[in-house]
TrEMBL record:
<dbReference type="InterPro" id="IPR001674">
    <property type="entry name" value="GMP_synth_C"/>
</dbReference>
<feature type="active site">
    <location>
        <position position="161"/>
    </location>
</feature>
<dbReference type="InterPro" id="IPR025777">
    <property type="entry name" value="GMPS_ATP_PPase_dom"/>
</dbReference>
<keyword id="KW-0332">GMP biosynthesis</keyword>
<comment type="subunit">
    <text>Homodimer.</text>
</comment>
<dbReference type="InterPro" id="IPR029062">
    <property type="entry name" value="Class_I_gatase-like"/>
</dbReference>
<comment type="pathway">
    <text>Purine metabolism; GMP biosynthesis; GMP from XMP (L-Gln route): step 1/1.</text>
</comment>
<feature type="domain" description="GMPS ATP-PPase">
    <location>
        <begin position="186"/>
        <end position="375"/>
    </location>
</feature>
<feature type="binding site">
    <location>
        <begin position="213"/>
        <end position="219"/>
    </location>
    <ligand>
        <name>ATP</name>
    </ligand>
</feature>
<comment type="function">
    <text>Catalyzes the synthesis of GMP from XMP.</text>
</comment>
<keyword id="KW-0315">Glutamine amidotransferase</keyword>
<protein>
    <recommendedName>
        <fullName>GMP synthase [glutamine-hydrolyzing]</fullName>
        <ecNumber>6.3.5.2</ecNumber>
    </recommendedName>
</protein>
<dbReference type="Pfam" id="PF00117">
    <property type="entry name" value="GATase"/>
</dbReference>
<dbReference type="Pfam" id="PF02540">
    <property type="entry name" value="NAD_synthase"/>
</dbReference>
<feature type="active site">
    <location>
        <position position="159"/>
    </location>
</feature>
<dbReference type="GO" id="GO:0003922">
    <property type="term" value="F:GMP synthase (glutamine-hydrolyzing) activity"/>
</dbReference>
<dbReference type="InterPro" id="IPR022310">
    <property type="entry name" value="NAD/GMP_synthase"/>
</dbReference>
Length: 500
């Protein structure tokens, strides 16, 4: 595999992505992580700092000692230059954006034209080469654009992983197959086989537990680990009563009947609703649900399990790496509210280095139905944060039905897959209406649908009026308790996606 040392470039993920697309497994680690096993090549990413800064992230000692092929990109190139005895300085010319370079004959540039456009973003440049190094590409300003430090150590001043760099993929490909002489053997089928074997060897005849939420990541993790250890995996689905209509029945059916996993469904509805009585503050709701989830999970797991399986995926790892270290940190958003602190588990995160779309493809290979794999995100606290004000069973029933109709309408009109997330919100406002000859006084329901990439920002979806009309007519006709429907036309920011 290829190990990418992350020096903080915004393109590090792209590097991992490109390498996998070329059929080689790649993994991103931090400079102070332990060296992984079975390294086939090393890439040093770009980064925002100057290698001359006092707090510049260093080159770990083990890297040059491995004698493995290395490719430094931008900061990576400068780090190699400095480390191997060259000199890096802030030059008068900084290059940002598209820059033409002229390349020399070298295996890393095989099948690439002499002049290509590359993507640069650097203020520092190498001004003095380390011994035995040679410049193999230059910009018009005579800045070193690529350096060969030895037969298997290269550096690029530009970013080959960015689409603006012409033949960038080819350069990466040449590094992988001509310099590092790696094999093209990464595929999801291969990953599945390897992972199952690895998990089986690690857990052996011990027991593992997973909290299945019915979302994509935990579903895929459950099925994967089940393939490895079968009955020794206990999959627990906690029904806090705040789920979508018939969710608990559906999830149980899918996992029991279709996939053959004996899912333990814990009906904790009453516990949760009791605790949530009279609570209107959204943060309190979240906290109560998180804590109660821990209690329920504790009761189920007691101390009978050695391993805890988590559905952490690559974007979660990246996020926690940005905030320091990426080891065994349990982030509260993986499930409703974190996990018991006083229960000792060894944690296994089988999907840790996968992108969301890879997780979905693995799910497909493992036979998980598409509607589980491609469904919209659903918050851990569930409908509790979509009922504004106090949560009652009556309101839950109203919201579940309304939400179901809205989603059904979107699916019927081929809009479900066009939006990131769509749902309804029950407000505590009641307004006047007229039904037949009768005055009516019922709740206002809001419809929300947004388009987004990762949920960090979002635009409200421009769903055709006819579809909104269809949903509105059906909901007011079929759901007792709703007298008026409004469409939320706020984006994020300033609003959040959820209302609470
Ligand atoms: P907001 O409302 O913050 O939502 O714009 C961004 C994304 O996160 C989901 N969300 C949550 N997920 N626990 C979760 O597991 C939560 O407490 C929570 N709050 C929001 C939300 O559905 C959206 O996809």
């Amino acid at each position: 595999k290829v190990v990418i040392i992350d020096y903080g470039s915004q393109y590090t993920q792209l590097l991992a992505r490109r390498i996998r697309e070329l059929g080689v497994y790649s993994e991103v680690i931090q400079y102070d992580d332990n060296p992984p096993d079975e390294i086939g090549g090393i890439i040093l990413s770009g980064g925002p700092k100057s290698v001359n800064d006092v707090d510049a992230l260093p080159l770990p000692k083990w890297i040059l000692n491995t004698k493995k092929p290395i490719l430094g990109v931008c900061y990576g190139l400068q780090l190699l230059s400095k480390e191997l005895g060259g000199k890096v300085e802030k030059t008068e010319i900084s290059e940002y954006g598209k820059t033409e370079i002229e390349i020399s004959n070298d295996p890393i540039f095989d099948n690439i034209p002499k002049n290509i456009i590359t993507w640069m973003s650097h203020g520092d440049s190498v001004v003095f080469l380390p011994k035995n190094s040679s410049v193999i590409a230059k910009t018009k300003n005579n800045i070193y654009a690529a350096i060969k430090f030895s037969n298997n150590i290269y550096g690029l001043q530009f970013h080959p992983e960015v689409k603006h760099t012409e033949f960038g993929d080819k350069i990466i490909e040449n590094f992988l197959f001509k310099i590092a002489k790696l094999e093209k053997n990464w595929s999801l089928n291969y990953f599945i086989e390897e992972k199952i074997e690895e998990i089986r060897n690690e857990i052996n005849d011990k027991k593992a537990i997973i909290a299945l939420s019915g979302g994509v990541d935990s579903s895929v993790a459950t099925v994967l680990v089940h393939k490895a250890i079968g009955k020794n995996l206990k999959a627990v689905f906690v029904n806090h009563g705040l789920l979508r209509l018939n969710e608990e029945i559906e999830v149980k059916k899918i996992f029991n009947d279709l996939i053959g996993i004996n899912l333990t469904v814990i009906d904790a509805k009453k516990r949760f609703l009791d605790k949530l009585k009279n609570i209107i503050d959204p943060e309190k709701k979240r906290k109560i649900i998180g804590e109660e989830f821990i209690r329920v999970f504790e009761e189920v797991s007691k101390n009978n399990y050695d391993y805890l399986i988590q559905g952490t995926i690559y974007s979660d790892v990246i996020e926690s790496a940005a905030s320091g270290k990426n080891t065994a940190k349990i982030k509260s958003h993986h499930n409703v509210g974190g996990l018991p602190e006083d229960i000792e588990f060894k944690i296994i995160e089988p999907l840790k280095y996968l992108f969301k779309d890879e997780v979905r493809k693995i799910g497909e290979i493992l036979g998980i139905p598409k509607h589980i794999l491609y469904r919209h995100p659903f918050p851990g606290p569930g409908l509790a944060i979509r009922i504004i004000g106090e949560i009652t069973e009556e309101k839950l029933n109203i919201l579940k039905k309304a939400d179901h109709i809205f989603i059904e309408t979107l699916k019927k009109n081929n809009w479900y897959d066009k939006v990131w997330q769509a749902f309804t919100v029950l407000t505590p406002i009641k307004t006047v209406g007229v039904v037949g000859d009768e005055r009516n006084y019922d709740y206002v329901l809001a419809i929300r649908s947004v388009n987004s990439v990762e949920g960090m920002t979002a635009n409200w979806s421009k769903i055709p009026f006819e579809i909104l009309e269809e949903a509105s007519t059906r909901i007011t006709n079929e759901v007792k308790g709703i007298g008026r429907i409004v469409y939320d036309i706020t984006s994020k920011p300033p609003a959040t996606i959820e209302w609470e």
